[in-house]
Amino acid sequence: MTFLKLQNVSREVFDNNDKNLKIIDNINFAIERGEFLSIIGPSGCGKTTLLRLIAGLDFPERGQVIISDKKITRPSVSRGYVFQHGSLYPWETIIQNISSGLEAVQGKHFNKELVNHFIEIMGLRGFEDAYPSQVSGGMAQRAALARSLILKPELLLLDEPMGALDAFTRIDVQNIIFRLWVETKTTMILVTHDIDEAVYLSQKILVMTPHPGKIKKIVDNKLSFPRKRDSTVFLEQRKKLQKILSFS
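Given the sequence above, the corresponding structure tokens read:
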């Protein structure tokens, strides 16, 4: 069954000359519950705008975003959002950051065992009382993922969460995201500039055109799991996406 669908979605802003500047134009796609979709395309094509519309942080001039047969009109804890830099609260420790959303929903008697579970699976044991400025970028992103996933969202939106990480840390966080997707069966949408990342994680890859952003193609990524980055089929899929992007 269709879980999320965008119907004829367009978003515009006014430029310095008070003229309409179209960011995305007539976007139509749908995904099923539990799928992993990646969105790729050149800078400025509206990838993050698209994610914000799905999150309910922004709204289209035309069209509608529908989740579970209901139009999105506001943000919701059922839709988690992880930013490129994690956006942890700098004045709170790692464990306080991970607990914050759960405490807001459940009150002072929130499930501490669940918090400890996420500390463990994210490899953050021993860093619970550290502040974001005292841990690596990879650890901060793992904490940000835990803070979103601990609320058991039905949809997790990932806005280039690995964009600022070094290559080795990036692969580590990719593997954590993949493992969590398999374990939680959470529907995930990832915005990325990295074709390899999209091929490694996704079941579907949405390729956008340059400004204004339109859908160039939606590619079914049917490579079997686990995926090997140096395999022939992986490299062929990457080459296929590079070709599609080059004609965007």
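The CA atoms of residues 207 and 217 lie 5 Å apart. Try to locate this feature in the token string yourself.
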